[in-house]
Write a structure and sequence with these properties.
Length: about 400
């Protein structure tokens, strides 16, 4: 069964085409449609076993972008299928499912309405997902679509970990609580990590660190999410590229009062002007921060040290919550590729039974055990594959 996997952002569409069978998957192509709505858009199409194809032209909306994807998939030279009839289902990454969706589901009008309802608490992500869903309805009418929610994996978190100590009426009225994100990634790397490290996934204590421009840490207890660092929105927890992460709410109200900022302006400040960008004044990209760090820039040193230390703090917190840890997993753009981040996060955790081996750490993007054979707590890099999780859920729901 050929499945198209879509991850729609506000101005981009990431995609993969995967041929799924029971217990087996084959990647046919992947690519990116970028700069949607700007003067000059870009399609980058990478078919397996063929030359990469790029196309620059205005891409005014997601429907046009997805149409270009379809043309690329069936093209005589760089296509991977002979006809769009071969695409039997489309799986979408949807950021926020609230309490409605504890698992993936086939998309119906009711599902779309609930995704729309949740746009108010995921204004950067859910509207883009809806655009992708509606674009497929136009380009591939009648093809079944499945929504795979970032929040679903975290629906097993107990109330003591997902509730905030606010007046309970706000939970009753507005469902104010921790939801967590990056669920498809945490789910994939926890299971894959357990297999790789020789652990029983259903009887293990795993801490997964999805570290990138956005990042989160999750405690996975006996195969289920037990706690996670992101909260009601993706803003909470770790310091990120442009997000502040964990902060005293009174500091925000104080800034707002002193600066005369509106709630919308404060939201932009916390989500788009903070994190390592705000601390360093240089960039939101850790590669730029690393270069400035090596050059001795004091604010870059502060930003990177804080960024790494926050990861370590959550590892310690979740080890305490679960009563120990068997495996620590690093994944995501920074987690898989930045050896400094992994070493800094594990340094000083020897008291917990972590024996990190720096000689094994000079690796990028490959599944690797990073701990010594004598280590009571294993440490690993596991390359995430959210698209495979989405394709698998889609296959299981529509087959």
């Amino acid at each position: 069964m050929v499945i198209l996997v879509l991850n729609c952002g506000s101005s981009s569409i990431k995609y993969q085409v995967i041929d799924m069978e029971a217990g087996k998957s084959t990647l046919l192509a992947k690519g990116l449609v970028d700069r949607i709505g700007l003067a000059e858009g870009l399609l980058t199409h990478k078919p397996v076993g063929k030359e990469k194809f790029e196309l620059q032209q205005p891409i005014p909306n997601h429907t046009v972008g997805i149409s270009l994807v379809m043309e690329s998939l069936t093209h005589a030279e760089h296509g991977v299928i002979s006809s769009l009839d071969e695409v039997k289902a489309v799986g979408h990454r949807v950021a926020h499912g609230g309490e409605y969706f504890p698992e993936s589901c086939v998309i119906t009008d009711d599902v779309k309405a609930k995704i729309q309802e949740l746009c108010v608490i995921a204004p950067l992500h859910n509207p883009a997902s809806l655009q992708g869903i509606e674009a497929i309805e136009t380009v591939l009418p009648g093809v079944k679509q499945v929504a795979v929610f970032d929040t679903s994996f975290h629906q097993t978190i107990p109330a003591m970990n997902y509730m905030y100590a606010l007046p309970y009426e706000y939970y009753e009225k507005y469902r104010i609580r921790k939801y967590g994100f990056h669920g498809t990634s945490h789910k994939f790397v926890a299971r894959r990590g357990a297999e790789f490290a020789g652990l029983d996934y259903e009887k293990s204590k795993i801490i997964t660190c999805h570290i990138g421009n956005g990042g989160s840490v999750t405690a996975v207890l006996n195969g289920k999410s037990f706690d996670t660092s992101m909260g009601f929105s993706p803003l909470d927890g770790l310091a990120m590229g442009t997000r502040c992460g964990q902060v005293d709410a009174s500091a925000i109200t104080y800034i707002g009062e002193k600066e005369g900022m509106t709630l919308a302006e404060l939201d932009v400040m916390m989500n788009k002007k903070s994190g390592v960008l705000g601390l360093s004044g240089i960039s939101s990209d850790m590669r730029d921060i690393d270069a400035a760090y090596d050059a001795g820039n004091e604010r870059a040193i502060l930003a990177r040290d804080l960024y790494y230390n926050r990861i370590k703090k959550f590892i310690g917190e979740y080890a305490a919550e679960m009563g120990g840890v068997d495996l620590i997993v690093f994944t995501g753009g920074v987690g898989e590729n930045a050896k400094e981040a992994r070493e800094a996060a594990c340094k000083g955790l020897e008291f917990m039974g972590v024996e990190f081996d720096p000689s094994l750490n000079n690796v990028r993007g490959e599944d690797t055990i990073l701990s010594k054979p004598t280590s009571r707590v294993k440490v690993a890099i596991i390359a995430t594959n959210e698209e495979l999780v989405i394709a698998t859920d889609t296959f299981n729901l529509v087959k």
